[in-house]
Design goal:
This protein is α/β, with parallel strands linked by helices and 337 residues long. It has helices at residues 6-18, 21-34, 46-61, 71-77, 98-109, 124-128, 141-159, 166-173, 176-197, 213-227, 264-277, 296-322, and strands spanning 38-43, 66-70, 86-92, 113-118, 131-134, 203-208, 231-236, 253-258, 281-285. Helices cover 51% and strands 15% of the residues.
């Protein structure tokens, strides 16, 4: 597959990612033992989008009080639920994202417990937080972060007595990297065909819901807009019929991300509508992928990782077809603003 080293992927995500289980459990168990009032999942851009699935999982499966917050707004709003008893969780590939680093310092100054997942060691974020897991490689970092966040979030639930299946769940986390590999292999030709067909498409609607809303938001903003300079809009399936539907025409590209959680019917409603209008409907459904080693009970959670990995195959082919490197920026980290 184009720009995909299968052995490297398994080494970084399967071998090294799973090696952090013991460290994660020690951190979470210590916090749970001392007691805490709520969880804050904080990020900027792609990393706040990464937090939305876990906010959804906690809100739909747990009584833990949780808040997913955009770092800059979080600091500006003087959030009244943030206290010394809060636990604030951050992710950052570079460890240098300005808003994330500032938010971590803000939380630390107010006495909250801080945890970060960071790819690059020795960076500012790693030096601020109370607990840091440093994976050591930017390559496949989002895949690794997703896996680690599963263990973090579900360990908090386990300690609260809400997830007795934790041991079996974590055993299935170990199967996830190979399930991802199978999915990207199965989807690769579709990804290439999409990029060829849409290399000159100037606007995409991306629709998702539930634990795939974060991926929907992130792919439209961070990949299509930031990395490919393509106009895109992320639309929550529950809100699609409150305005956006009026912009769908026969040639409108609509990309539907279908997961397997409780909100799947919301996306299916959008799908039924779009099938009547546009000839440019793309449906990416995690139910189409085998996910070997993953039980039916947990597929809805792991759909986040599967969906993100197959979307990433579209990215590499768009880069090739459009002759537009994913690393190219006009403004981001190119100028002061």
């Amino acid at each position: 597959m184009l720009h995909f080293d299968e052995n490297l992927f398994l080494k970084l995500v399967e071998e090294e990612g799973l090696a952090y289980r013991g460290q994660i459990e020690e951190i979470v168990d210590g916090i749970a033992g001392r007691g805490y009032s709520n969880l804050f999942l904080i990020g900027a851009g792609g990393t706040i989008a990464m937090m939305y699935p876990y906010e959804y999982i906690l809100k739909s499966s747990s009584t833990i009080d949780v808040h997913a917050e955009i770092a800059a707004e979080f600091m500006a709003m003087n959030h009244k639920h943030l206290t010394r008893d809060s636990v604030c969780i951050f992710t950052s590939v570079s460890g240098t994202t300005q808003e994330t680093v500032a938010a971590a310092a803000y939380c630390k100054e107010r006495g909250a417990t801080t945890i970060a997942l960071v790819a690059e060691p020795g960076t500012p974020l790693t030096q601020i937080v109370d607990h840091c897991i440093t994976t050591g490689s930017e390559k496949h970092s989002f895949d690794t972060f997703f896996m680690l966040l599963y263990m973090v979030i579900f360990r908090f639930m386990y300690n609260r007595g809400e997830f007795p299946q934790y041991e079996r769940f974590t055993e299935e986390v170990a199967h996830l990297p190979r399930a991802i590999l199978q999915a990207v292999q199965a989807f690769d030709k579709r990804a290439e065909d999409f990029a060829i067909r849409h290399k000159d498409t100037g606007y995409h609607m991306m629709v998702g819901s539930g634990n795939l809303w974060g991926n929907t938001y992130s792919y439209a903003m961070c990949i299509l807009e930031e990395m490919q300079w393509i106009h895109a809009k992320s639309i929550h399936a529950a809100e699609f019929f409150h305005g956006t539907l009026e912009l769908v025409l026969e040639d409108t590209s609509v990309i539907l991300l279908k997961g397997e959680d409780e909100t799947r019917p919301l996306v299916e409603r959008v799908e039924r509508f779009c099938e009547k209008i546009t000839k440019q409907l793309t449906v990416i459904d995690t139910a189409d992928f085998e996910m070997a080693g993953i039980s039916e009970e947990f597929r809805k959670h792991f759909a986040v990782s599967i969906n993100w990995s197959v979307l990433s195959r579209i990215s590499v082919y768009l880069e090739r077809e459009r002759n537009h490197p994913l690393t190219l920026r006009r403004y981001y980290r190119q100028m002061e603003y």
